[in-house]
Design brief:
It is elongated, with a radius of gyration of 18 Å. With 169 residues, it is of the alpha/beta class. It is built from 3 helices and 9 strands. The strands form 3 sheets. A 5-stranded mixed beta sheet has the order 1-2-5-4-3, with helices on one face. Strands 6-7 form a two-stranded parallel sheet. It has a two-stranded antiparallel ribbon with strand order 8-9. The protein has helices at 6-17, 41-50, 111-122, and strands spanning 21-25, 33-36, 58-67, 72-80, 87-95, 100-102, 125-127, 155-156, 159-160.
Length: 169
């Protein structure tokens, strides 16, 4: 079977979910994407995985990006089909003051750890996640280090967080 192009994938998602799927964006085969209404992301992902012809059997990456000027944290889902060799990305915007989106860990089990990483570093809550807790930072670490307004504490439990640069001029 041949890979669908991004226009076909986008059209199939729009046919099924209507206005919950935003416009197609991107400039190359490997970076086409569409936005999804936050509350519909799990439903869209389940469809993308199971629908004949789409069969996105792999969530190759789930990441987040902080956009303080837009007051949004964007969660990006990179999908890949081993069966059809096509790729597509979905993006969800969550408000910075209360970033909550449904979990997709029941669709692709490895999303469990990827969602925990986005929770830990950006503060996004994945509603329905079976074990949402920090994965990289200590449980009592203050804040979320990948937020653009994050200020690292000068010390943590009495240990200085500043280090002399190893790069000597």
């Amino acid at each position: 079977m041949s890979a669908l192009d991004a226009l076909d994938i986008h059209a199939r998602l729009r046919d099924r979910f209507g206005a919950a799927i935003g416009d197609l964006a991107g400039t190359r085969r490997d970076n086409f994407c569409a936005t999804v209404e936050p509350g519909r992301i799990a439903e869209v992902c389940a469809f993308a995985k199971a629908e004949p012809g789409l069969e996105f059997d792999c969530l190759s990456n789930l990441s987040g990006v902080d956009y303080p000027k837009r007051n949004v944290i964007e969660i990006v889902y990179h999908l890949y089909s081993y069966t059809h060799r096509h790729v597509f990305a979905l993006k969800v915007g969550a408000p910075r003051d209360n970033p909550v989106v449904p979990t997709i860990s029941g669709i692709w089990s490895h999303a469990d750890w990827q969602e925990r990483e986005v929770f830990d570093l950006l503060g996004v809550t994945f509603e329905g996640h079976p074990d949402l807790r920090r994965i990289l930072m200590p449980e009592d670490w203050p804040g979320h280090p990948l937020r653009k307004d994050f200020v690292e504490p000068e010390e943590y439990h009495g240990i200085s967080t500043s280090r002399e640069s190893l790069l000597k001029a």
